[in-house]
Design goal:
Length: 368
């Protein structure tokens, strides 16, 4: 079976790491998977892309379209053309698209227009906020795809309401697979990666990231968020996404302060080590909300809604709508309740790969 994975942005590299490992483990009646990787080049900085392939031991992409930055239409349009050429060349059994970026939508659209089957990993997530480009990408991709790999029962219920239950399989969340694996190796590493925050080991600090267009692209909103981080009682390490750096500079907003230490985007093991050493997280990232939850750290989400509803249980994750409340919410004590395993037990990627075999009419029975 041939699978063409289409990725382009940082969170997709983490998901791909889980899937490419699982693909090398699953064999179906003696048949293994021939895995091709197309990188659209949506994220191109070494710290946003190359370092993830290296640290997470992902095979180098077979094709890199080097699309880079641009408007949504320009990015998506250029991707469509490049992906079509590769699809015609590779002729995959499945095109596999990940998450909710412009690379996801372009991959799904190019493939269905050629009549080639598409599977959507992380299907069924909904924020119900149509202002988010990611929400449009998710909805359109789900409705184009032939196989919907849902990370949770909540995601599957959204798909059912949209009439898509017959193509849905619940797998668990593949990001949880990698998060748990990397956290385990960080815990057992005699010299784990250190957070760049210049404080003695054992100090209390928060990890922060902000990158969503709804937060970065409006100057008064971004100013209020950064003011909120500056007003926290704790030290904060702010990992700065290129979009945040660009907008802060355009709007004349200083990101660092007495308590906020600004750092470059972190390699994945360093980010996990940083969260493990922290007392909590402040973010607008979907992935980081879940990572905080899986690693027992309270999360404060600077958004009006979340796609990951399971993280909200018992206040493990709290959404901040009124930015005046940021400081009070972010310094709340950590809940103590247990949270179950709504994202699976670390085997979501194996389940997703077996589902690809099963849906192509060949049931998966053996493993390496
Ligand atoms: C994209 C995804 C979002 C995902 C996020 C993770 C879409 C619509 N959004 O948002 O779902 O959560 O990736 O990071 O696909 N830039 C660089 N270097 C890079 C990458 C980006 O400098 O390596 C800058 C460019 O100026 C670019 C801006 O960041 O214009 C935004 O990048 P873009 O790819 O448009 O979207 P993200 O905000 O990263």
């Amino acid at each position: 079976m041939k699978v063409l994975s289409i990725v382009g942005a940082r969170p997709q590299f983490v998901k791909l790491a889980a899937i490419s490992r699982a693909m090398s483990q699953v064999v179906n009646h003696g048949e293994s998977i021939e895995h091709f990787i197309l990188h659209t080049g949506q994220h191109y900085d070494a710290g946003m892309s190359d370092v993830f392939f290296k640290d997470l031991e992902i095979p180098a992409p077979n094709v890199n379209l080097e699309i880079g930055s641009g408007s949504h239409a320009m990015q998506t349009g250029r991707m469509l053309e490049g992906i079509e050429t590769t699809l015609l060349d590779v002729q995959p059994t499945w095109t596999l698209v990940y998450g909710d970026t412009n690379s996801t939508l372009a991959g799904a659209l190019a493939s269905v227009k050629l009549g080639m089957p598409v599977a959507h990993l992380e299907a069924g997530l909904r924020s119900f906020n149509r202002q988010m480009p990611e929400e449009i990408n998710r909805v359109l991709t789900d409705h184009a795809a032939d196989l919907l790999l849902a990370p949770t029962e909540t995601a599957a219920s959204h798909l059912a309401k949209e009439g898509l239950s017959s193509s849905t399989t619940v797998t668990g969340d593949v990001m949880a697979d990698i998060c748990l694996l990397v956290a385990n190796s960080v815990r057992n590493d005699p010299e784990p990666p250190r957070s760049p925050l210049p404080v003695p080991p054992g100090s209390k600090y928060l990890v922060a990231t902000i990158h969503r267009a709804e937060n970065t692209d409006n100057s008064s909103r971004l100013r209020s968020i950064i003011k909120g981080l500056h007003s926290l009682d704790n030290q904060v390490i702010l990992y700065v996404h290129p979009r945040l750096r660009k907008r802060a500079s355009e709007f004349g907003i200083e990101l660092s302060s007495n308590n906020v230490f600004v750092a470059e985007p972190a390699p994945y093991p360093e980010l996990i080590a940083s969260v493990l050493g922290s007392i909590g997280v402040v973010t607008d990232s979907g992935g980081l909300q879940k990572e905080a939850f899986l690693l027992d750290r309270p999360c404060t989400t600077v958004r009006g809604e979340t796609e990951w509803l399971e993280t909200l249980v018992d206040g493990w994750n709290v959404l901040v709508r009124d930015l005046n409340e940021l400081a009070a919410v972010a310094s709340r004590p950590s809940p103590t309740s247990s949270r179950g395993e709504p994202y699976g037990a670390g085997d979501a990627s194996l389940r997703a790969v077996r589902a690809l075999f099963a849906a192509s009419g060949r049931d998966c029975r053996t493993e390496r």
